[in-house]
Amino acid sequence: MQIILATSNKGKVREIQSLFEKDEVVPFSELLGPMEIEENGSTFAENALIKARTIFEKLGRDDAIVISDDSGITVPAVNGEPGIYSARYAGAGASDKDNLSKLVDELKKRGMKEAPAFYTAAIAIVAPNAEYVVHGWMHGKAIDTPRGEGGFGYDPIFVPEGFDETIGELDPAIKKELSHRSKALKLAKPIIEMLRSQHA
Ligand SMILES: O=c1[nH]c(=O)c2ncn([C@@H]3O[C@H](COP(=O)(O)OP(=O)(O)OP(=O)(O)O)[C@@H](O)[C@H]3O)c2[nH]1
Ligand SMILES: [Mg+2]
């Protein structure tokens, strides 16, 4: 049974598919076409559930397993910004570059070359008569000078704990080991397998 992924973020699709077998995970847009989902929750978990529930209901199938990811970067020294607003930190429709530049500006405004930061990923799993949410975190620091082209979003200014390079500079295999998303998916997988066995 395929897993349907309730995200439009290509970076997430790439990273989540890399943690499953080939073709095991399909982005919802391949089944339903493109669709904007209003994320009006007040936490990562609420937004992840909104996204997974919306796609599950749109599919209208009694054998679907839908997963979603709501994630973002939090910088305590910048009032905990951007947090759940990471995708629109620089305004509605902002690009990854705009959002990253706004966070760099906020650090510079405070005379900070770097500040502790962490990524959060909330993965929601919605299936017939079942809803779960799991979380993963990745701690490190945000720096004021983007380095590297790898990853996506804020990765060029995020240096994970135990490293000197940014995620943008590091081998993707390292992010796959360390990331908030990989940690959350490691917790989600046994739940997904249980749900699959119930519908086998
Ligand atoms: O550099 C990054 N490395 C990451 O690993 C990562 N994970 C999330 N983010 C950022 O957090 C926001 C997510 O917002 P978000 O969860 O609403 O996703 P999204 O709107 O992009 O797609 P969707 O899943 O909602 O369809 C976006 O701005 C992402 O850039 C990351 N940035
Ligand atoms: Mg979003």
Automatic annotation (TrEMBL):
<feature type="binding site">
    <location>
        <position position="38"/>
    </location>
    <ligand>
        <name>Mg(2+)</name>
    </ligand>
</feature>
<keyword id="KW-0378">Hydrolase</keyword>
<feature type="binding site">
    <location>
        <begin position="7"/>
        <end position="12"/>
    </location>
    <ligand>
        <name>substrate</name>
    </ligand>
</feature>
<dbReference type="InterPro" id="IPR002637">
    <property type="entry name" value="RdgB/HAM1"/>
</dbReference>
<feature type="binding site">
    <location>
        <begin position="152"/>
        <end position="155"/>
    </location>
    <ligand>
        <name>substrate</name>
    </ligand>
</feature>
<keyword id="KW-0546">Nucleotide metabolism</keyword>
<comment type="similarity">
    <text>Belongs to the HAM1 NTPase family.</text>
</comment>
<dbReference type="InterPro" id="IPR029001">
    <property type="entry name" value="ITPase-like_fam"/>
</dbReference>
<dbReference type="InterPro" id="IPR020922">
    <property type="entry name" value="dITP/XTP_pyrophosphatase"/>
</dbReference>
<protein>
    <recommendedName>
        <fullName>dITP/XTP pyrophosphatase</fullName>
        <ecNumber>3.6.1.66</ecNumber>
    </recommendedName>
</protein>
<comment type="function">
    <text>Pyrophosphatase that catalyzes the hydrolysis of nucleoside triphosphates to their monophosphate derivatives, with a high preference for the non-canonical purine nucleotides XTP (xanthosine triphosphate), dITP (deoxyinosine triphosphate) and ITP. Seems to function as a house-cleaning enzyme that removes non-canonical purine nucleotides from the nucleotide pool, thus preventing their incorporation into DNA/RNA and avoiding chromosomal lesions.</text>
</comment>
<keyword id="KW-0547">Nucleotide-binding</keyword>
<dbReference type="Pfam" id="PF01725">
    <property type="entry name" value="Ham1p_like"/>
</dbReference>
<keyword id="KW-0460">Magnesium</keyword>
<comment type="subunit">
    <text>Homodimer.</text>
</comment>
<feature type="active site" description="Proton acceptor">
    <location>
        <position position="70"/>
    </location>
</feature>
<feature type="binding site">
    <location>
        <position position="71"/>
    </location>
    <ligand>
        <name>substrate</name>
    </ligand>
</feature>
<feature type="binding site">
    <location>
        <begin position="180"/>
        <end position="181"/>
    </location>
    <ligand>
        <name>substrate</name>
    </ligand>
</feature>
<feature type="binding site">
    <location>
        <position position="175"/>
    </location>
    <ligand>
        <name>substrate</name>
    </ligand>
</feature>
<feature type="binding site">
    <location>
        <position position="70"/>
    </location>
    <ligand>
        <name>Mg(2+)</name>
    </ligand>
</feature>
<keyword id="KW-0479">Metal-binding</keyword>
